[in-house]
Amino acid sequence: MRDLYTGDRSLGAGYSAPVHPGVMTHSSSPRPLTPHTARALFREAALDIAALCVPTHCVLCAAPDRSLCRGCATVLHPRPTAQRLAPLVRQGPAAGPPAPLPPVFSACPYTDAVRGVIVAVKERGRSDAIPALARLLAEGILASDALACGARESRPSLPLVVPLPSTRASERARGFRHMECAARGAIRVLRQRGGYRLSLRPWLCSRPRRDQVGLGRDARIRNVTHTMSASPRVRGCRVLLVDDLITTGASVREACRALHAAGAQVVGIVTIAYAQRHSS
Ligand SMILES: [Zn+2]
């Protein structure tokens, strides 16, 4: 398993220690130090030093020295899945025929492990675990067809990445915008892996609303409807909307409504995880 899949601070279960040039092993076959293994070694050393300076522990099992230990990281497998949402019914000044929405790609199901990492980030302020979510988000983006346009280096042809916002109250309590951070991390991963040069634009904001957790489908839709607005700067832009979790799709649809109302074209929707009980 490549370290891409294993979370922020781990090399993964399948990782085997690299061999430096000139160092003879029991098989007497010196192997070159590749850029990949060199980066992995450097990162592990840096994390060891960081753990000495700022003690940390695994967000899932509390093992010391890593935000996500190697064992826990191996269960965060990307298993991209797509689902369709019903077309968006446009009302008011932007009224017109229902606007079809792109399929929603999710990197993985909302397993206990994924839930544990997301809750640690959102509820316990463990921003150090965000890179694990960023890597999953990057896998979801790669699985979608949002990057299928134009050359990788062709910046204008790639969509702008717009994270779905939390409420201001949640952001204040948390001290950071977790999806903005995760999207920035995913953009970094995609640049390293595929040379994609995506740009982050946090151009959605959310008015106060009740937390969606614990609400049924209809209550979620009522709770979130007309609570988001998009910056006028998004007009005419192609947008890749990203979020952490899709359950009923109510928040994603509201974000799409706000983006459409502001004149944007939503060309892709990607979430880190999907809840099994979702419906559109
Ligand atoms: Zn662990």
Automatic annotation (TrEMBL):
The entry's keywords: Glycosyltransferase, Transferase
Keyword Membrane: no
Coiled-coil regions, chain positions: none
Transcription in keyword set: no
Gene Ontology MF: a single term: glycosyltransferase activity
Domain Phosphoribosyltransferase: 223-275
Family (UniProt): Belongs to the ComF/GntX family.
Listed name of the protein: Putative amidophosphoribosyltransferase
Organism of this sequence: Klugiella xanthotipulae
